[in-house]
Amino acid sequence: MAVHIEDLAIGDLARRTGVKVPTIRYYESIGLMPEPARSEGGQRRYGAGHLARLRFVRHARDLGFEIDAIRELLAMAADPQGGCGEAHAITRAHLAEVEDKIARLVALRDELRAMLACDNGRVADCRIIEVLADHEKCLHDSH
Amino acid sequence: MAVHIEDLAIGDLARRTGVKVPTIRYYESIGLMPEPARSEGGQRRYGAGHLARLRFVRHARDLGFEIDAIRELLAMAADPQGGCGEAHAITRAHLAEVEDKIARLVALRDELRAMLACDNGRVADCRIIEVLADHEKCLHDSH
DNA sequence: GCTACGCCCTCTAGCGACTAGAGCTTCAAG
DNA sequence: CTTGAAGCTCTAGTCGCTAGAGGGCGTAGC
């Protein structure tokens, strides 16, 4: 909060947050970002509040939160006196999903590695095609 | 190949492969599955070849291969005399993506776990909102 | 043969989260 | 005052399906 930032063009905001220009406009269109002020010629002009909010959004997206979850997180962030139990619930649900995804990807990784253990010869002898053609040859039954 | 399967309705094929009926029609529309024969009344009738091909597709999709990659794998599977180097290349590329995704998800998981280490009190003290609002408080700089 | 019911048909539109392009206007540096 | 980058709106496309409307087909029982 040392420097007072005002009147950023959309491109400046994009550079400062790492969010692409069309994506910023898209966020505005779905109500995730508020409509900014406009220059006399009609161009968007952003301030420190927009910058902070967009960084919050960007970070949450990087963390894999869905837009609707971010909407809820934003609403909570706007109310510092409220409880954060809901934020916990959202985060826990998200964590569970992430852990599940990791487990499935690890199984998949092992399977892909096993598939690569072939001598690169003809298709007739290739484990990759073979495994894909016949599920029984898989390492796991998980899928 | 013990039993000769012919004249499956689309629903039978769906049950035998675990691929939903509209998805089978979708695969046909994008040329991933060939157009099947039709009954007198115009309903699709599938044979053993379709069944095998759809199982191949299903399995590859489960393994996270994209449709275009599956197209290439299918073309290779159809040519058992050809080399399988390309199948290796596709699989290796896919494996690299999967490993990358795992690494990022693990970092994310740790971050989410750290975020949950808050006493569930007011938003003003909540690490979740705080971390999302300020990237600097993250565990990693990876994102 | 007739009816009932489940399955099948085509077609269009929608999802999430953007991304790309056309065709035009505005801004700021030189 | 000109130029060129960056902004504007709008539409349409991406991927891999999924949902729904409004109808036609197939078969089992009577």
TrEMBL record, chains A, B:
Keywords from the UniProt entry: DNA-binding, Transcription, Transcription regulation
GO molecular function: DNA binding; DNA-binding transcription factor activity
Domain HTH merR-type positions: 7-76
Keyword match RNA-binding: no
Keyword check for DNA-binding: yes
PANTHER family: HTH-TYPE TRANSCRIPTIONAL REGULATOR ZNTR, REDOX-CYCLING DRUG-SENSING TRANSCRIPTIONAL ACTIVATOR SOXR
The name this protein goes by in its record: MerR family transcriptional regulator
Organism: Salinarimonas ramus
